[in-house]
Structure formats: structure tokens, C-alpha cells
């Protein structure tokens, strides 16, 4: 079970700060690569995460994407080359999944 923290309005970026999304490489592929299906586990999950991170590593807006995901404490998906577990570690969120996806693309 994940613990969620409420995000304050002041934590959210202004709309003009989100223009980086127009250059996002993930716009060119299926969202299914960046957001896991229910109960996905094991090698299939690792492969999907690896493939998504490869795209992130080539993305021109990886830095603002990463900053955004951390600022709003995005709970799901691959953002800025970070998996959910990567962000949990950075943000000090306890998740305790057995599957470690440590792999940095930036
Ligand atoms: S860094 Fe990854 S998730 Fe972020 S915009 Fe680029 S491709 Fe999409």
C-alpha cells in the first residue's frame, strides 16, 4: 500500500512552465510504455521500464520533466527517466517493493 501526500496548490507549476511537454518524446509512443498495467510484475515490468527509460534518455526535456514529477510528487509512471521506485527513493517515500528498478538514464 502506498502512502500519498497531499500536494499543495503552491507546489504546482504555472501552466506556462509546462510548455516543455510539447517537446516530450513520449508523445510519440504509447502511454502504455510509461504507465504500468494493473499487477504488472517481474521481467515484463523491468523490460517495459527499461524501454521507457531509454526513450527518456534521448528526450530533450528530461530535466524539466524530472523536476515536475518530483515537485508534484507524481505517484505513477515513468517521468524524466525515473520510475515510481526511483522517485520514492529520492522523495523518501516508503514503498518497499521487491523489484528494484535502479537504473539512471540521466
Ligand atoms: S523525459 Fe521521458 S517521460 Fe519526460 S517528457 Fe521526456 S520522454 Fe516523456
H and E string: HHH
| Main beta sheet strand tally, sense and closure | none
Number of domains: 1
Give the averaged pLDDT, no decimals: 86
Percent range for β-strand residues: under 5%
CA-to-CA gap between the ends? 29 Å
Helix percent reads 25-40%
The tally of strands reads: 0
Which structural class is indicated by helix and strand composition?
mainly alpha
| Rg calc | 14 Å
Characterization of the model:
- It is a single chain.
- The chain is mainly α and 106 residues long.
- The chain has one domain (13-91).
- 32% of the residues lie in helices and 0% in strands.
- It has 3 helices and no strands.
- The protein has helices at 42-57, 62-71, 84-91.
- Mean pLDDT is 86; it is low at 96-106.
- Iron/sulfur cluster (SF4) binds at residues 24-26, 34, 55-56, 59, 61-62, 65, 78-81.
Write the layout of secondary structure elements.
Elements (H helix, E strand, L loop, with lengths): L41 H16 L4 H10 L12 H8 L15
The structure holds iron/sulfur cluster.
The site of iron/sulfur cluster (SF4) has 14 residues, from helix 1 and helix 2.
Summarize the structure.
It comes from Rhodococcus opacus. [4Fe-4S] cluster binds at residues 26, 56, 59, 65. This protein is mainly α.
Amino acid at each position: 500500500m502506498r502512502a500519498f501526500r497531499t500536494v499543495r496548490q503552491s507546489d504546482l507549476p504555472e501552466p506556462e512552465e509546462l510548455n516543455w511537454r510539447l517537446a516530450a518524446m513520449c508523445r510519440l509512443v504509447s502511454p502504455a510504455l510509461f504507465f504500468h498495467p494493473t499487477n504488472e510484475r517481474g521481467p515484463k515490468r523491468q523490460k517495459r521500464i527499461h524501454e521507457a527509460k531509454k526513450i527518456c534518455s534521448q528526450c530533450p526535456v528530461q530535466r524539466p520533466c524530472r523536476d515536475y514529477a518530483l515537485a508534484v510528487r507524481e505517484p505513477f509512471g515513468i517521468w524524466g527517466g525515473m520510475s515510481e521506485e526511483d522517485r520514492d527513493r529520492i522523495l523518501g517515500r516508503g514503498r518497499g517493493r521487491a523489484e528494484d528498478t535502479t537504473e539512471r538514464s540521466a
